[in-house]
Amino acid sequence: MDPLIIQPNYLPTIDFSVENSNPGKSCWHSTSLKVRRALEDHGCFIATYNQISPNDLFDSLRDLFDLPLETKAKNVSDKPFHGYFSNRPTAPLLESLGIEDAASPDSVKRFTSLMWPNGNQSFWENMRTYTKVVSDLTQMVVRMIFESYNVEKYYNSHVNSTTYLLRLLRYRQPQKNESNVGADVHTDKGFITVLHQDQVNGLEVRTKDNKWIDVNFPPSSFVVMAGDGLLAWSNGRVHAPLHKVIMKGGDEARYSLCMFSIPKGIVEIPNELVDNDHPLKFKPFDHDSLLRFFAEGKAKHHESTAKQFCGISE
């Protein structure tokens, strides 16, 4: 079975069943090429990867966002966009919390204890399971990318220097005469983002030919999206798409989770990805500095932060 399905005006859907996602199986190589092509052509794709229980997961999110504001506000960080925030000018309908180093069960435990000092076993177990599943999926996708570009020798060092930020999000429906923009147009700043949502849609992605498409995907699947980090690392081969969230009406809030993989230290563009057809387009960069560059308002919105921060002028 071909793991890639493409429909007009829709994102590719790639099957990450055991057959297609096991390096020892014959389909691994073909799936890797599909992943690379999807990220180069679209910057994202829908991954079918049935490893979690969506109902339990989103029940836990509702419990979290029902907590008092003073409790949620305890989620603080010295890094931009890592702690609690709400009602930002570029995301007026969004309320969000962050779990740093989310692939670590201890980090998830600390966050749970911060929100519920007396404990919340259900939340802890659901988030621990979710972060393990999504970090595994992320590493699988990254391995496929590295192998398809024949730079797999860098894979282990990359994974060992990667951390994960899990953002938990709730978009409320707009009030009368209020804008329906849940999150303004932007690119993600990390390497890979894995996005998961409940049954309420809202994500829109801009294609390379500047058309906006609605991304409708069920709670049993994920959207895998390239960020500015991957755009730069790939020397511009991978597309980091502009996207936004638009609330389409109705009574229900939209709950979603975004897991960002974030490289630590200096990211070097592999020499193997530089040639006559692909001259060097980016300087080595530090992701934390890239993020602060954006947070301090030095980047122009609606444009690639990586190109502004570490791009080489032609």
Brief summary of the model shown:
The protein has 314 residues and is α+β, with helices and mostly antiparallel strands. The protein has helices spanning 18-21, 27-41, 54-65, 69-72, 105-115, 121-148, 155-160, 228-233, 287-295, 305-310, and strands at residues 4-5, 13-15, 44-48, 85-88, 91-99, 162-171, 181-186, 192-197, 203-206, 212-214, 221-226, 243-246, 254-263, 266-267, 285-286. It is globular and about 55 Å long.
Which helices and strands occur, and which strands form pairs?
Layout: E1 4-5, E2 13-15, H1 18-21, H2 27-41, E3 44-48, H3 54-65, H4 69-72, E4 85-88, E5 91-99, H5 105-115, H6 121-148, H7 155-160, E6 162-171, E7 181-186, E8 192-197, E9 203-206, E10 212-214, E11 221-226, H8 228-233, E12 243-246, E13 254-263, E14 266-267, E15 285-286, H9 287-295, H10 305-310
Parallel strand pairs: 2-3
Antiparallel strand pairs: 1-2, 3-11, 4-5, 5-6, 6-13, 7-12, 8-11, 8-13, 9-10, 9-12, 14-15
Could you describe the largest sheet, including whether it forms a barrel? 9 strands, mixed
The geometry reads as globular
Q: What is the name of the CATH superfamily?
A: B-lactam Antibiotic, Isopenicillin N Synthase, Chain
Order of helices and strands: EEHHEHHEEHHHEEEEEEHEEEEHH
CATH fold topology: Jelly Rolls
Report the radius of gyration as a whole number of Å: 19 Å
- Number of helical stretches of at least 4 residues: 10
Number of strands: 15
CATH class: Mainly Beta
* Average pLDDT reading: 90
Tell me the structural class. alpha+beta
What's the CATH architecture? Sandwich
Query: Helix fraction?
Result: 25-40%
Euclidean distance between termini CA atoms: 43 Å
Percent range for β-strand residues: 15-25%
Which sequence of strands runs across the widest sheet? 1-2-3-11-8-13-6-5-4
Provide the low-confidence segments as ranges.
1-9
